[in-house]
Structure formats: structure tokens, C-alpha cells
Design a protein that fits this description.
With 273 residues, the chain is mainly alpha-helical. It is built from eleven helices and seven strands. The structure holds zinc ion (2 copies).
Amino acid sequence: MEYSIMARLNPDTIYPYICEDDRDNDDYTTFYLKALTLIEYRECEELYSDFHSIGGFGLRSLKYGLKGWDNFTYENGEVIPFDFKNISAIPYKNQLELYGEIMKISEPDEELVNELKFVAKWSSVMDKLDENKLKQWDCVEYCSQKKGLQKSRNCEGNGTYICKYCKDDVPDNNDVCEECGKKKGLVFKYRFSDQADDYITRCPVGILTSRSLKLTNIVNYIDNSKSLPFNKGAMEQTYFYYMARSIVLSEQNSILKKEMDQMKKDSEKGRRK
Ligand SMILES: [Zn+2]
Ligand SMILES: [Zn+2]
């Protein structure tokens, strides 16, 4: 399930969840989950590092993350009241599934982490562009208006490679040509630095997703306003918010540091001349 950014930042959000093997049943059980707060997450982590027990981590996560259930009964129809003491009534397989879901809402996934890092990177490029150049990177207003540009910048991400040897080859995402068997070339390449793999093969603005932009903006906004997005103290915020914030800020810092190092190097070079 996809969850909205604001919901995931709020430590009070409750997520209804139905286990996979129960979804086709008419009398399915609904579980109510919440994301772990920073303090809860740390506690689970400590448990894991002390005893190296994934079971302990999982059970503790369920203790904090499982907030209720509806229509949960024994085989004979007897209702099981919600209480953590009754956790063993949930089949182990479903316990694992619930634990997985609690982690999913508590932690940013790898894709989002990469997106957040990319937003920071692209923002620092944009900061240095003048207004005219900036306009040329407006994917909606520019790429799609200029004939062929959307294709040559691979805005949609579905035409990354093109064969240099076969005429009228249509770009797609296979890097080997089906026609001649040769390795295909990139349609679009945008370099950020001279580091070997520091480039993208798709229009940078096409890559930016609304969720990563929104999250980055929220983090920056909160960081400037010095107030937290929701009530309660810093440790009671969701681990998701804490992680997203540290990714955004550390990425921004490391970009800034790289740029300052480069400036220092350049000015030393200039002095030597
Ligand atoms: Zn574009
Ligand atoms: Zn070919």
C-alpha cells in the first residue's frame, strides 16, 4: 500500500491493514497499525544489538506498532479481545507480515532514499542556473513543448538506449540491440561531476517525483522554522520523519562541503598561476 507523506510524518496516524491470505474472506480481520516513533525504533534496535534476535525486534515492533484489531476470532467464533497478551493468537506467518508492514510505514524505502538524495543534488544544480537556463529544465513547460526534446532527454524514462548502427531504431530500455546484437548507446546523459558514475540517463526533472519533492520541502521548511511537523517532542516523532530529515540534511551538507572543497582547490590553483 502507498501511504501519503503527511500521514507518515504524523506519529498518530493509524493504518488499517488486512493480511494477504485474509483479503478474499468476507469476515476478514482488520489490524490497526502505526509507525514506530524514533524512541520506539531505537528501543527495538537496541534489543536487536543486545541479543541479535530478529524475533525480539519483531515482537517489540508489534508491541508498539499494533494498536488494535477488528473482527478477530478463534476458530469457534469466540471474539479475541485486543490485548498484546493475545498476540500468539495471530499465526506466526501473519505476525511476520504485520511486522513487515509496520517497518514499511516506519522506514523510508530505498527508492525514496535515492529520490531524496537526487532532489538535493538537482536543487544544488538549479541554484547555480540563471533564469533562462532554469526555464530550459522545466520538463512540463519546455521538454514537452519543443519538438523531439522529450524523446532526446528521455523524460518519460522509457527510451534510455538507442542503436547507433541500425537506422530508425526506436529507443527503449534494452541495452543490447535485438536487430544487430551490438551494445546500444545512451539517448541522454547528464553529468553532475567528472566522477565516473555521476550522471543520469533521464531528464532530471522527469525523475523528480512529487513525493520526494514534497518531503524535501517539508524537511527544509521545518528545519528553517525550528518547529516539528506534529505535536510531541523530537523523540516521539516517527522514525520515518527522522530518517527522511537526516537524509535530506546530510545530503545537502555533503554537497555543500564538496562545493566548498572545489572552490578552495580552484582558488589555490588561481593563486599559483
Ligand atoms: Zn524533461
Ligand atoms: Zn542495432
